[in-house]
Amino acid sequence: MILASDTVKGATIDPREAAHFGTMAKDWWDPKGSSAPLHKLNPPRLRYIREQVDAHWGGDGATFTPLAGKTALDVGCGAGLLCEPLARLGAAVTGIDAAPENIAVAEIHAAQSGLAIDYRAGGVEGLVGQFDLVTSLEVIEHVSDPAGYVRGLARVLADGGLLILSTPNRTPLSRLAMITLAEGTGTIPKGTHDWNKFLTPEELTALLKDAGLRVTDTRGLSFSPATGFTLSDSTSLDYFLTALKA
């Protein structure tokens, strides 16, 4: 789900990260493959996005298509694990990822699912247009310039729109869970994360503020063997941030 390198001046993407995630493309939709953790993450992700969408646009939580009439952009979309649910929620969805392998798999899967999603290989720096909803989940910890990346996200966010990010926190717990255990046991491919590139909520909030955005919600994402991934008050492992234009 990583946004990879492109030739646009000022690109924020690390080519090594792109290559790493590109090798995972063929297994992206396999719930037991290398992207299995992403499949397990999707239910709490969608719950959080739905809560924020309903709160922002006055939804009642009952309609099946709360994003009808809205445009959505998923940045670092991988093979479309989030894009497809957003399309089913009614949005006109664009997904961008600079690993062409991921985009190829995403296009095939969307066609098989009967979904019209505009997939593009590239980075946010080269994207033209603005979107009502911009999502970028578990991506910013992989980019080469987090501040520039956030500015890129802010640029494509429409006035009155909603930006939702998620990323691991830089804590001893995240190092233990994501690197020592998850990568050490092969649950996720070795080399997926660099703990030193993780951002704390305070650091990411400051980057969003510098880009002209205002954080309106912070929510933790926790994991336990009994319940799996769940939304939580604790941000010590991973967290979501929602922001609006200030």
UniProtKB/TrEMBL annotation:
Pfam families, A to Z: Methyltransf_23 (PF13489)
Signal peptide interval: none
MF GO annotations: 2-polyprenyl-6-hydroxyphenol methylase activity; 3-demethylubiquinol 3-O-methyltransferase activity; polyprenyldihydroxybenzoate methyltransferase activity
Catalytic activities: a 3-demethylubiquinol + S-adenosyl-L-methionine = a ubiquinol + S-adenosyl-L-homocysteine + H(+); a 3-(all-trans-polyprenyl)benzene-1,2-diol + S-adenosyl-L-methionine = a 2-methoxy-6-(all-trans-polyprenyl)phenol + S-adenosyl-L-homocysteine + H(+)
BP GO terms, sorted: methylation
Family statement drawn from the similarity comment of this UniProt entry: Belongs to the methyltransferase superfamily. UbiG/COQ3 family.
Function summary: O-methyltransferase that catalyzes the 2 O-methylation steps in the ubiquinone biosynthetic pathway.
Source species: Sphingomonas aurantiaca
Classification via SUPFAM superfamilies: S-adenosyl-L-methionine-dependent methyltransferases
Domain of life: Bacteria
Pathway noted in the entry: Cofactor biosynthesis; ubiquinone biosynthesis
Positions that bind S-adenosyl-L-methionine: R45, G76, D97, L137
The protein's name in its UniProt record: Ubiquinone biosynthesis O-methyltransferase
Documented EC number(s): 2.1.1.222, 2.1.1.64
Lineage: Bacteria, Pseudomonadati, Pseudomonadota, Alphaproteobacteria, Sphingomonadales
Record keywords: Methyltransferase, S-adenosyl-L-methionine, Transferase, Ubiquinone, Ubiquinone biosynthesis
Stretches of the chain forming a coiled coil according to its record: none
